[in-house]
Amino acid sequence: MTNYIEDPKLRSLSEIAASLGKIKFSKGCVGKQLRIAEIRVSQLKVSSDYQRYISTATLKKAKQFNRELCQPLFVALRPDGTYVIVDGQHKAIMAYLAELEDEFTLTCLVYEHEQDATLADCIAKEAKIFEDLNTTRKNTSTLDKVRAGLSYGDEDAISFENNFIAVGVKAEGIGYKNGPEVYGFAKVVESINRWKISNTKQSVDFLYPIYKNQWGCDYIDGSMIGGLSGIFNLIDALGNGKKADGLNGYLKNNFANVSKSKWTENTRGNSDVLIARKIVKKYNDLVEQNMIEGSVIGEDMLSNNKLGKLDEVS
């Protein structure tokens, strides 16, 4: 019989620990002891308070439920007997979609809430566990962390959502619920930081009717929001006169005649500056051809308002 322990690649934990040298690691442990349980799929619930959006791409890629690849789910047992999935919702959904027998079970690690825990206590604890479990995973998005943070009152998460509410957009349900979905939410964050909330809000209000009614989209690109925010910041700096009036007139009468793809083409990186400069260039060209009223906007004005050529932009 083969003695598998003689595998030369096997190392004991003590050998590994010794090879690590001196590292700071606290003795003992914290947290509750979890129990292992087989729980029927039909009993499992999912909380939209903190869970990430369901990825249909993940489900389609898997194609079929594979028991061998299904690691234990992390679930929380609430005082009323409800089992809530904290980590592993996609695995559970796959098992459900597989139309297995009603009594089919999944292996779960169970965290039991205190019996006197309120619903708010349960949600907050589950959200914090979700965040801690996922904090080192590369596929955990900023929005996943914000959604979890909102469930337990994290100040940064609340500020994030409040900013999106203020400018009138949402990203995967976070932000202004009646506003348009934004693709490329990080560019909206960038716009708020660079061009401020007022200009970003003005950009959203300007773009959404164009996206919806003229370009046939039910969302807005974050890069376009940034670009128009830069333009509205520039218009404020121009004050009253032919340049400001002319650029406003161009936005009103000519901007939407250019396709969305043309505006965003070759604008990776500093997309806000690149898109804003495209708008100013097209405006200047029409002014120089006497096709619209206005006055040419020069490089000095652009540079002084954070829209200079990229090697000049701070």
Mind explaining what this structure looks like?
This protein is of the alpha/beta class and 314 residues long. The chain is 48% helix and 12% strand. It is built from twelve helices and nine strands. It has helices spanning 13-19, 56-62, 89-97, 119-134, 142-151, 155-167, 185-214, 222-238, 242-253, 260-264, 271-288, 299-304; strands at residues 35-40, 44-46, 73-77, 83-87, 105-112, 170-171, 174-175, 181-183, 219-221. The strands form three sheets. It has a five-stranded mixed sheet with strand order 1-5-3-4-2. A two-stranded antiparallel sheet has the order 6-7. Helix 5 (142-151) crosses helix 6 (155-167). The longest helix is centred in the middle third of the chain and has 30 residues, at 185-214. The chain is elongated. The N and C termini lie far apart (70 Å). 29% of the residues are buried. The model has no long low-confidence stretch (mean pLDDT 90).
Quick structural summary:
48% of the residues lie in helices and 12% in strands.
Strand order of the largest sheet: 1-5-3-4-2
Mean pLDDT comes to 90
What is the beta-strand fraction? 5-15%
Helices and strands, in order, run as: HEEHEEHEHHHEEEHEHHHHH
Distance between the termini: 70 Å
Backbone structural class: alpha/beta
Work out the helicity level.
Answer: 40-55%
Low-pLDDT sequence parts: none
Count the beta strands.
9
Strand count, sense and barrel status of the largest sheet are: 5 strands, mixed
Task: Specify the overall morphology.
Answer: elongated
How many whole angstroms does the radius of gyration measure? Answer: 27 Å
